[in-house]
Backbone:
């Protein structure tokens, strides 16, 4: 039986970090071939991808041309819609036949949430996994997950301990735009292709280029890959709905739409942790794993379920977008949407009040921050001054 590795990613551009992991997987797992599958770009981020689908395909072809065991497929790009891992592997099996063992190549962070992936049981029972891990990095957590899925599903999992190459596509794009050398980060032939096609130039609109500035387009692409692995289809659909609504509300009421989009993508990434915990966990993940230190963004994710006293404009946008995104169908949601068209504060207060009434009707404990947020908005809408509010408090 042939053994084929499947390696998906945006590859924008592909670099030596990608190639190193693929070669290690091929050698250690005795693979006959590794197939690179550049992902299609979802409609929510078409405007932010510097290289076209065809250019990304070309770059992968150039980068792997010297390795006869590497191949590239355009199946995801031709499909022109967001795909789940299980969809991709099903199509690979259909094209390659039943006498092929497919190994999906991924990293530690993604595999830790494998049991939350869409149709995870089918994935773990019918396909193999190769995990590129770094010694000491979430190693105990990874070992526990591997043991559990092997015991529960009979999963075939190969763990590779490989050195982490400190290379990222976003850093490469920044260096190219700044006129700095990217030699030894990716093949020379690929550098020539990028230069001939003028890729990754003029990505920033400011005249003062800050090499330390965060690339939120890259962050959005990375977190979307994470949530596509972690979230069930219904929750992923909700997340995209919140993102669409958050951007719309931000543009309507004058918040930063760029930040609203990123916060919306993060907001339910750890929904399995529970109603009150998942926002804080997601905010910590934003800060620790993506170096997002903007307190306004962190708070927008941290308090998107409960609200809080003194909510910023961005916090209100994310809070309300979560409540009225297009897929929500609870009683009264259309009234809330109608209010959101008129007044952001009124709509947030309406949502908070309904939450308070519902939680109390269920005999459950109410988070005090929700009560404080509602009282704060009442003061704001009554026109009470800060001094008067301090007196009442």
Residues:
């Amino acid at each position: 039986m042939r053994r084929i590795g499947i390696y998906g990613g945006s590859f924008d551009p592909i670099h030596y970090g990608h190639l190193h992991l693929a070669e290690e997987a091929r050698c250690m797992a005795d693979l006959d071939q590794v197939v690179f599958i550049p992902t299609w770009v979802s409609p929510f981020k078409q405007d932010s991808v510097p290289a076209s689908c065809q250019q990304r395909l070309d770059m992968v072809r150039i980068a792997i041309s010297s390795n006869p065991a590497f191949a590239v497929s355009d199946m995801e790009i031709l499909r022109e819609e967001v795909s789940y891992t299980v969809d991709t592997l099903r199509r690979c099996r259909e094209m390659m036949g039943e006498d092929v063992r497919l190994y999906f190549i991924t990293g530690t962070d993604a595999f830790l949430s494998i049991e939350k992936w869409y149709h995870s049981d089918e994935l773990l029972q019918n396909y193999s996994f190769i995990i590129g891990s770094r010694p000491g990095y979430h190693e105990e957590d990874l070992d526990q997950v591997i043991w559990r899925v092997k015991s529960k599903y009979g999963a075939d999992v190969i763990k590779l301990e490989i050195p982490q190459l400190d290379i990222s596509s976003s850093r490469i794009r920044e260096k190219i735009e700044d006129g700095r050398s990217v030699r030894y980060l990716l093949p020379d032939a690929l550098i020539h292709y990028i230069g001939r096609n003028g890729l990754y130039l003029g990505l920033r609109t400011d005249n003062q280029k800050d090499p330390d500035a965060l690339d939120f387009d890259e962050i959005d692409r990375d977190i979307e890959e994470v949530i596509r692995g972690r979230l069930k289809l219904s929750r992923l659909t909700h997340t995209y709905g919140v993102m669409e609504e958050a951007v719309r509300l931000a543009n309507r009421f004058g918040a930063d739409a760029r930040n609203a989009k990123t916060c919306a993508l993060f907001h339910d990434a750890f929904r399995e942790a529970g109603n009150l915990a998942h926002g804080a966990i997601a905010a910590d993940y934003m800060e620790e794993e993506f170096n997002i230190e903007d307190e306004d963004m962190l708070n927008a994710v941290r308090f998107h379920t409960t609200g809080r006293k003194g909510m910023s404009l961005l916090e209100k946008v994310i809070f309300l977008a979560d409540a009225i995104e297009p897929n929500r169908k609870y009683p009264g949601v259309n009234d809330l949407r109608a209010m959101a068209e008129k007044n952001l504060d009124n709509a947030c207060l309406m949502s908070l009040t309904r939450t308070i009434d519902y939680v109390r009707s269920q005999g459950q404990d109410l988070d005090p921050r929700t009560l404080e947020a509602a009282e704060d908005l009442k003061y704001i809408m009554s026109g009470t001054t800060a001094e008067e509010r301090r007196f009442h408090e």
